Amino acid sequence: MILLNFETLMSDPLEFLKTLACLIPVMLLSLTLHEWGHAFAAHKCGDDTAKNLGRMTLNPLKHIDPIGFLMILLVGFGWAKPVPVNPRNYRNYKRGEAIVSLAGVFMNLVLAILFSIAFIPLIRMYLLGSYSWLENGLLIEIVMYGISLNIILMLFNLLPFYPLDGYHIFELLFARRIPMNVLLFLRRYGQFILIGILVLFRVINFHPASELTGWYIRKLSELALNFG
After folding, report:
1. CA-to-CA distance for 103 and 85, rounded, in angstroms?
2. pTM of the model
3. In this structure, are residues 64 and 80 in contact, taking their beta carbons and an 8 Å threshold?
4. Cβ atoms < 10 Å from Cβ of 209
5. What was the pLDDT predicted at 201?
6. At 135, phi and psi to the nearest 5?
7. Which of 15, 35, 97, 141 is catalytic?
8. Are 151 and 122 in contact (CB under 8 A)?
9. What's the rounded Cα separation, in Å, for the pair 47 and 92?
10. Mean of per-residue pLDDT scores for the chain
11. Vertex 119, ends 111 and 164: CA angle to 5°?
12. How far out from the chain centre does Cα 165 lie?
């Protein structure tokens, strides 16, 4: 992100720092709850590996990977520490694998909904000038990041590429229909395929997730203005 917005950093450093100040807390919250969701779901399905290692916690320091977080800040793409699980401990393997894989995505969906609910009255008051404490727009910006980031995390993690959550669901659904060597190839090279797709999107300047979240926020703003 810093490298991609280096020109903004040089031309208006205060504005760029304001953006970081709004984005970082939302990012920490979203990544932490995503990983906590995996750990909590694993615990409920019978596996206490994450709990015993201190990962079933809302402490961001337990979930944030320093290099992954730095990569997010630099280029807009990174990672948190994956929650360790042992599927052999699940009371029901297939059900447990599905629930644990989708738990993080579900947490991002819940956060996106909560931020959306908060956004509607806030953007209405902001646009209508109802409350002076909203004039600087900082709170609105934080909520918008909360919406956008959690929608992006949700959709990104549903992609069927290893090691994303979507790959585990893909494997559960198609393990018996796809040759094992194909699944092994996807496990070995899935992360490189994923990086290649992300790089391609950057090169051709095509950002589907940003377009989608932008459209969604515009629709929420229209709903707020037409509300009541």
Report:
1. 13
2. 0.88
3. yes
4. 16
5. 81
6. -60, -35
7. 35
8. no
9. 11
10. 86
11. 30
12. 12
